[in-house]
Write a structure and sequence with these properties.
The protein has 249 residues and is α+β, with helices and mostly antiparallel strands. It folds into 2 domains: 41-141, no CATH class; 143-249, no CATH class. It has helices at 7-57, 68-71, 81-84, 110-121, 157-161, 190-200, and strands at residues 151-156, 176-181, 210-213, 242-246. Helix 1 (7-57) crosses helix 6 (190-200). The longest helix is centred in the N-terminal third of the chain and has 51 residues, at 7-57. The radius of gyration is 23 Å and the shape is globular. The chain starts with 6 loop residues before the first helix and ends with a strand.
Length: 249
């Protein structure tokens, strides 16, 4: 009767186990690479959607001052704080103020949330968004395939950046930006943020068209938000960072 495995049998078992472990790590790496690539593909898709919306409706989503004539009034007059407070369950929506920027109309940041509802109503992005002024990934804002409960948020660069403690005191252009972040944290590790920045821009957190969101440690080694020569802190795995993408609209 055999009492134990032979050395050959044990070697075969160990090789199989090694192959399985290696396959798991390779699979995890491929999944993570796909998540990072999704960040850029999502940004490009949303930027294209806005350009198509502008061409069709001659207005910016969220800021559009005649949106209710296309999709109905969610509440109030369609252009007041009463309307903006409504959580839409249909395409019924609210108007922006038509000033050419996505930000505040009747209520603080209202256009930022109606932005996604207008794009959804126009069938230019997937999903349904309620327009409610609360950051909920997949409900009021698009969730990212990057994971970590991350979402996409739009803002008017020059106005939003002024005095914002989480952003570098750098050039945010004259238009809008979209950033990926997390309503309960920030969502990305410094290394992941750097990987995307380096692959598609310049790899510098305070320069270029991709900028670091949430500059304090552990995301960068900047002493304050005016240190624009700082770098990403690649040795940290904390998911406390986000990325800002400057847009063409």
């Amino acid at each position: 009767m055999r009492q134990a495995f032979t050395l050959l049998e044990l070697s075969i078992v160990l090789v199989i186990i090694g192959l399985l472990i290696g396959g798991i790590f390779v699979g995890q790496s491929l999944i993570h690479t796909a998540q990072l690539n999704a960040v850029i593909s999502e940004f490009n898709r949303y930027q294209t959607a806005v350009q198509n919306f502008k061409q069709q409706y001659q207005a910016l989503p969220g800021d559009m001052n005649n949106a209710t004539s296309f999709w109905g009034i969610a509440g109030g007059t369609g252009s007041d704080a009463t309307c903006m407070a409504v959580v839409s369950t249909t395409a019924a929506t609210c108007n922006g103020n038509g000033d050419g920027t996505i930000g505040t109309s009747a209520t603080a940041a209202d256009e930022t949330y109606r932005f996604w509802q207008h794009l959804s109503n126009a069938k230019m992005v997937e999903g349904f968004y309620s327009g409610s002024i609360t950051a909920v990934p997949g409900v009021t804002l698009p969730a990212s395939k990057y994971g970590s409960n991350t979402e996409w948020i739009v803002f008017f660069g020059p106005t939003y950046a002024a005095g914002n403690a989480t952003m570098f005191a750098t050039d945010y252009g004259t238009g809008h930006a979209i950033y990926i972040a997390n309503p309960t944290g920030i969502g990305m590790s410094p290394k992941d943020a750097w990987t995307v920045d380096k692959k598609y821009d310049d790899g510098k957190p305070a320069f270029g068209n991709i900028l670091l969101y949430n500059w304090p440690a552990p995301c960068s080694n900047a002493a304050n938000n005016a240190v624009l020569t700082s770098t990403y802190t690649l040795s940290t795995t904390s998911a406390s960072c986000g990325l800002i993408f400057l847009t063409s609209f």
